[in-house]
Amino acid sequence: MRYRLANDAKPQVLLLLIATVLTVALWFIPYAEYLVYPVRLFVTFVHESSHALVAVLTGGSVQSLTISSDGSGVVYSMGSGLISQLLTSSAGYLGATAFGVLLLYLIRRNFSPNKLLTALGIFVGIMTIVFTVISPVFNIFSLQAAFSSILFTIIAGIFLASALVVLGLYSNLKVANFAVAFLAVQCLLNSLSDLKTVFVLSSPLIGSDIQTDAANMQNATGIPGFMWVAIWIGVSLFMISIGLRLYAVNKNRATDTVFED
Asked: Is the pLDDT of residue 126 over 50?
């Protein structure tokens, strides 16, 4: 079987390639991180929101969700058992990857990019209200997050939510399409880049005492953290491959098949 790119996917694949090239190019431009700083905060919001949502869905509770000015973030949660803890700890990187794949799929299925951006803004707003404003109030006596972190998260959440909603409501179709593609690529590539960093921090040669999701998994299971990171990388690459395949397939297989003998 020989793979062939569907004809109607070519314009969207070009858009995705442009977003990918731009993302990689920014890595090598001095101070370019300041240009994409809001996007970095958005990816962190997705990462930490994945932790929080899975914690709640598996019967746990969330004390707070905060992000820092350096782009890192933390969710303080209490799981309902070992399975809840394992799923919650794994949800950050895998959730960000799945989020990026979902955006690719929705773009390919011609879901309105303007509505997508608006929905993303509402999502960030809801996560901020529920896990950064309401949750700390109900866990005030056991709260571990600093007030300064909560304040920064609220400000960042309001800014990101507003910017995404405004972009969704007032940008033209081309700008909205590129914005969604760029956010999808950022979620995917930043997730892989962060996994590479965590893998190094978790390796026996480094022996870093920095608290990471991999360290949480190691403490819960006794299995070395770098092995968990390797599993996460493998799962992330698998999800990305599926996402790219869905992105390239023809919406109407009856007229233009993806595979040829």
From this structure: yes
